[in-house]
Protein 1
Amino acid sequence: MTDSPKAPKVGDTFTLVRECDRYRPVYYAAASGDFNPIHLDPEFARAAGLPGVILQGLCTLGWAVDAFQRYLGDPGKVRGVRVRFSRPIAVDDVITFTGTVTQVDGERLTAQIDAVNQRGEPVLKGAVLEGVA
Amino acid sequence: MALSPSFVGRKYGPFTYEVGVEKLREFAYAVAGGVPSLAFAGNSPPDGLLPVLHDKAAAAQSAYGAIVAMPNFAVVYAIGPFSAAIMDPELGLNVMMLVHGEQEFEFLEVVRAGDVLTTTGTITRAVSKAGKDFLTVQTESTNQHGRLVARGTWTAVIRG
């Protein structure tokens, strides 16, 4: 890619803000095929012990990957991702992703990413992204 | 029914997925904050979406020569073994109480429209702990050239 950023270095940061708008779980269901009713049907979600519909965890993972690929300027430079889903995302939640490059070894780099909702509560735990410069 | 380690080693697949360009676009649009449709929502891409993920002309000029998949599109083409394990009647999981606990991917090749991806998976962890069941499935996906495209580690937690 011609618009790649300059060489990543330890301490670089990148951010992305994403709102779980009312229809995001529906849009993500359509695109991903994850039609589990806990993401679509408030009554079903409450019967499953949730306060309401929650966003697909894999959409949250997608947001983290998107933040990283924007930083790298190239989806092909993303080589790995690892996340634990620590808290569900509800409709109207606004998630702020903050990535920090923690290691650069030759062309390979590692970044940690924090993802918190509008109350400052983490929605991912120990999220790590691997890439190449 | 509580999960037991006796299920470790159980295999699922192969599952085959043929990649289409509009599906790649819809997926990228939905993840990047847009609508996965070229119909009523109009066809303008979400802000900041990398051109190689949706713009045919720009992608043709890139090193890849064609639109490529978001790396995490693996959640679509590689999920077969994980969902098969979750629905496996012999495991007897209460799907209603199931949440996705952890996810890990290693990406080895970019994915383009027209790729035919084949995924197999194996249960690597099945335990009952503190009233919860934990199920982990590891997957490997290869393309039509026999090259390894992605490895995945998928963990479900079944609450009580």
Note: Chain B has a mean pLDDT of 94.
Protein 2
Amino acid sequence: MNQKSRAGIAIRAGLMILCIMLFSAETPAVAGDTLNYRLKWLFNTSVAGDIIADTGGFFKKAGLDVSVNEGGAGKNAIKELELGYANFGVASADQVIRALEKGADVVVLAQLFQVNPMQWIYRSDQPEIRELSDLKGRHIGVTFGGNDETIMNTLLAKAGFTSKDVRISSVRFDFTPFLKKEVDVWPVYRNSQGVILEERLAAEGEQVKFFNPADYGVAFVANSVVTSGTMLKKHPETVKAFMTALLSAWEFAVDPANEPQVLAQIKKKDKGTKNNIRQKQLKATRPLIKPDKGTKIGIIDVGAWQQTERIMIQEKQIVAPVDVTSRLVGPKK
Amino acid sequence: MLFRRIYQFLIVYCLGVTGLLAIKYATGLSNYVIPDLTLLFDTARRMLTGYFFDVLNTLSVTVLGQMVSIFMAFFVGIIGRKSSWLGSFIKVMAYNIQAYPIVALAPIIFILMGDGFLSRLLIASMICYFPLLLSVLGIMASPIKDIEHFYIATGRMRWQLEVKIRAFENLNKLTTVIAGSATLAMAGTIVAEFIAADQGVGYSIRIALYQSDLARILVALFSIGIIISVYQGILETVGEQIKTKWFAPKGGELL
């Protein structure tokens, strides 16, 4: 073997080792080391409890060093758990179910949203949607491939409608088609985009209403806190401490008595939103996290998870059942 | 030329997938992070036909966008070749505008023009246009002194002749740039579809991303790669034929 080919083999072996090290590097998960918590979306009022857990010192008090990281369009907490980049994360139910179908080792520790913030906004001067049959003939926006498409398809099937009974349009990142009245019913996150749109239209003298699928029996679960099965098995005390701190922070965040402190902390992370909008967003977030005084924050609604799995099978989002209930390890309803 | 492009793509694609599979098995990742071959083939069986038509849809916009940008690049390049104030102004403007990321303008285009055909065409043309323009400007502004001197000295030089001489002498470069710009036009169209359109393969990739489905993305990339290879191969073959025709004097042998 000459020197050139030996050097080639050495380079290839080096690259392979580097590759394996890069992807197999597990982030530390024991007390004293930094834990990574990957959110689903950017810092905003919707993640008030997560922000407070960090900046309000809840994690610190529990003896944990946690790095709370923003999510975003290309971020996926479950993949990061598997790749070792995160120890905890926030994922929607459909992400969890899809991951389970493909063999991911993920468990659900708490269900943050008791009511899915994914709702539809429409103008008050249009006929009110009291029954599902009132959707007939409407021009409805959906994000093809998104949760809202699955939810809307379920609602339409429940109403006995076919694609001819309504007009469906693809939704993109900006609200222009809704603002220009090209689309009547537009999907929004009730506590973030919903508040912004409501304000913008109010400025134009228009009032809005929201159409909540949960009112018509479709309880599609939204964001939940997840970790890997391995993490839960190897470090149950760390998981327990993390969840206790996080849920206490959420209790603090949704308590109206703490509003000024909470808004001040959110402002540090979400500088681009106006104060009055943040306040309204927090007000809209409270009933989604804690619909009534008796509800324990983070409690897992097993029935809703089962329904979400059924819907995903009906909508051919997954091929076979995944028995999601076996992966719900947090406190249940 | 055509088959070589396809072989090259297949080698690169297979190497990429092999690399992913190596990482998957070396680190024990589930199919959610990196799909195995079974899942990949199953996804291909279900999605490939649909993606093939999506890519054709994208390609139709790409071809049109590329034609628009070639026309624009030659038009501006020919005007800007002179060392007059107009030529210098056009050159400076072209260099400065191309520094601005077109993708950043895409959302504004979609807000103003909606998510239909025109937005996709405009973004594809813009992304493809500037690199083309810079090459055409460079070629057209560089005199071929040995040849041009003869026509200038004999008083027979016209602008059409000047353009022909410079194009002829740089035919290899022009063919390569035009074939290469096909990839840019395709990328531009896909970016446009990814941001906001409601059809084409970029839109399909966006849906697959929403669902964190890497298998679908890999199948979509395969469709894109095969079709763009064929398209580039055709462009290069046409370029070769034009070269052969130009180099061969009428009724004579190749020089």
Note: The mean pLDDT of chain A is 91.
